[in-house]
Amino acid sequence: MKKEFQRISTLIHRWFKDPEKKRIKWSEIYLAVAGKMHRLLVEGRRTRSAARRLHQDLPITALGQMKLEPGDIVYTPSSESTYYAGHMGIIGLDGKVYHVHPYGPVFADSMDWYITRFYEGDRFIVFRSRLNQAGVKAAEWVQEHYKQVKYYRLQTNLHSIERNYCSKFVYQAYQFTSGLDLWSRKFAKLNLGYIYPFRIERSPELEVLGTFYK
């Protein structure tokens, strides 16, 4: 840290000392300061956060051994493999992970295959509905309707099954069967909006069963 601030100080000193002979552009000072602040505030926080997660999360092998129930939700937060948007799937009656995907538009994967779609270092958070039997109803709906998904689209119509995306599909499974609103937003009553994965992650209707890292 001391060396970085010395470098910044030197650049500023040179700029004022001899502006005609060797003028230092403000961009150099900006980049030096911005680089230091990024390393101090962003990279440092990411490193500390990753260390805490590694200590708290279970290895991905534990997820493969976990007894999941129909309707359980598997969520992966923002990462490179999720195109920095997050991704989620829902467990069907057959134990497979049903998820709407840009390359699908929808897949029914075994848990082992589903995990291979993500990169090393990704996290997986498993949620379960607090309402009894809601998960089973959602899983049943998923298996009956997943083939109706024809296009991966970020569409605002929350009733459209044909044009869908991962978190909207999970939202529909619970909303259309048990009336559970995993979005918890007033705009949901208008049947319009975007169901971001992190919104479902924060739903009070769900409980966390476990967190895992790959």
Automatic annotation (TrEMBL):
Stored InterPro entries: Papain-like_cys_pep_sf
Organism name: Paenibacillus vandeheii
Lineage, highest ranks first: Bacteria, Bacillati, Bacillota, Bacilli, Bacillales
Protein name: Permuted papain-like amidase YaeF/Yiix C92 family enzyme
Superkingdom field: Bacteria
